[in-house]
Amino acid sequence: MTVHSTLPGRPGPRIVAEMTVRALVRRRVSMAILVSLPLLLYVARHDHVGQSIRGLLFGVSWAVTTVAYFAATATWDAEPRLCLGGWSWRNLLAGRVAGLLALGWSLAAAYVILVLVDHPVGDGAAVAIDFAVTAAVSVVLGTALGAVFHRELEGALVIFLVAALQSVVDPDTVLAHLIPFWSSREIGTYAIDGPDMASLTSGLLHAAVVVVACSAVALVALHRRLRRPVPPEVRSGPQP
Questions:
Q1: Quick one: pLDDT at residue 11?
Q2: Which end of the chain, N or C, is less packed with Cβ atoms under 10 Å?
């Protein structure tokens, strides 16, 4: 992103959201992986309704979290200059999250339609809620990780750890409740197996706690980073 020396006012989150979406859409290989990975997991267990939907949700959580993480780390060098140029760090964060949510929810909506057309499910509304919640949690988790871990290997390993635990830990254990995507499994069980097997309210409350916690981490980390004195080489830009 190019920083101009003078900007008319303080650009709002909408401009940042549009820039985020355009930048991601231009990365065709990344977007192809984002779309195809959940579908591959869905097709792999297609004969088993519950497992195929859970595989699709798992793919969405991993893919959207990863995209949100790399979208956050990609701005580490640009954001200090944008702030010097008159951009608000709050608008930068809000706009980036809004753009990621738009992409995540668009992807989730397409998959909800696929599931409802392709599989008999007991509660289609709960399936839609699960995909929407999973996408939202993925965006804020990836954003928080990107605000904390600048080195891509560290962040990628943390995402891998979360995904691995999510796939193997018994959902009734205490450890499972500490995993950010426990809500996805709980709401999915409610949608597929019925209210006797899981609680929609518990899943939504867990998701809300994760969203608030990750949002707080991202806000604090970004505020501390952008409020620090900017090094001379960042302030002046690269020398010819």
A1: 62
A2: C
- State pTM to two decimals: 0.84
Angle, alpha carbons 82-85-87 (nearest 5°):
60
- Rounded to an integer, what distance in angstroms lies between the CA atom of residue 54 and that of residue 46? 11
Mean pLDDT of 128-146: 95
Q: How many helices (H) and strands (E) does the chain have?
A: 11, 0
In a domain, 236, yes or no: no
Residue 43 lies in a domain: yes
In a domain, 239, yes or no: no
Per DSSP, the residues of 65-129 read HHHHHHHHHTTTTHHHHHHHTT--HHHHHHHHHHHHHHHHHHHHHHHHHHHHHHS--S-HHHHHH
Cβ of 219: how many Cβ atoms within 10 Å? Answer: 16
- Asked if residues 182 and 198 have their Cβ atoms less than 8 Å apart, the reply is no
Range of the domain at 107: 13-229
CA 60 vs CA 10, 23, 82, 85, 118: distances in Å? 34, 20, 31, 36, 18
The DSSP letter of residue 3 is: P
Q: In 3D, which of 104, 132, 139, 135 has the Cα closest to residue 191?
A: 132
